[in-house]
Amino acid sequence: MNALRELIGLFVEDGSLALAILGVVAAAAILSVLAAAPVATGVVLLVGCLGVLVENILRAQRNVTRPPARQ
Amino acid sequence: MRRAPSPTKEKGHLALMDVAMSNWATIAPAITSAFLASIVEVVEAFTIVLAVASVRGARPAIAGTLGGLLLLALIVIVLGPMINRIPIGLLQFSVGVLLLLFGLRWLRKAVLRAAGIIALHDEEATYRSESLQLQEEMRRREARADWLAGLTAFKAVVVEGLEVVFIVIAVGAGRGLLVPASLGALAACVLVLGFGALVHRPLARVPENALKFGVGVMLSAFGVFWTGEGLGVAWPGEDLAILGFIAAFLALGLGLVAVLRGRSAELAR
What we know:
The complex is a heterodimer.
Chain A lengths: L1 H8 L5 H19 L4 H28 L6
Chain B lengths: L6 H50 L1 H26 L4 H27 L8 H18 L4 H28 L5 H22 L8 H23 L10 H28 L1
């Protein structure tokens, strides 16, 4: 069980980042099935991954710098 | 007198040069990312094996390391031939998605570390904490001390080694580059172990975060490329598109570090 957790940990550390990446891949896959121009699939994939990275990193910084809530 | 090359010959020559350029665009990043990623992983495994050797002696450390390497070799021998049976499109897609998960995870962490938002990985601290943990564990179970020490080395080699195996397969399998990628990883192992044997202490001066940043950039670029190929995208420039993706992830990563540092400095004022 521990080994399985470590194996999954190789790919997934921040669940929201992993989910967002899979979301981008799913969107690109749907576009490719709908027979859109293959370039559109590529653009969605590249721009989506770059966007996911930016959003996740900026959110991580906000979470760290946010002042603690008052008790 | 030399005759001028015929237009057909010249065209053929240009086509060959195109192929060579395109091959090099895939081979060079594959070898480089396997080499750099393996340095990071081997340094981490070496730190733990060294902690085991310092606490309990060389014998359990060597036994655990050899056991781990044997298991890794078995995994490669069993899984290696299976790769050839998977349809290329499916292989490219699944390896691409795993590379995106793996590469973007490394790049995210490296950016956050470079911007000072999370702490840098410290091999000296890992060495101290592993040694302390092991000493504590051994005091409690003296009878099985050698066994525990060997198991710690074994686990470190298997966990870090699996990452190396995955990276080699991921960057090499899609275009039949398993051998060059394996050579990149092997060179990293020889370099780190040779240097480690000489200095006999944790390799704390390896710029781990810079390596992780670079590898994260390359793996993410490969991830976009392979996932797209698996989905039938005809990338402009074919393999050369990888260089464009590397440039895009690199520029974004460096830009994010600059923005985050600027914001942190503003908050500190």
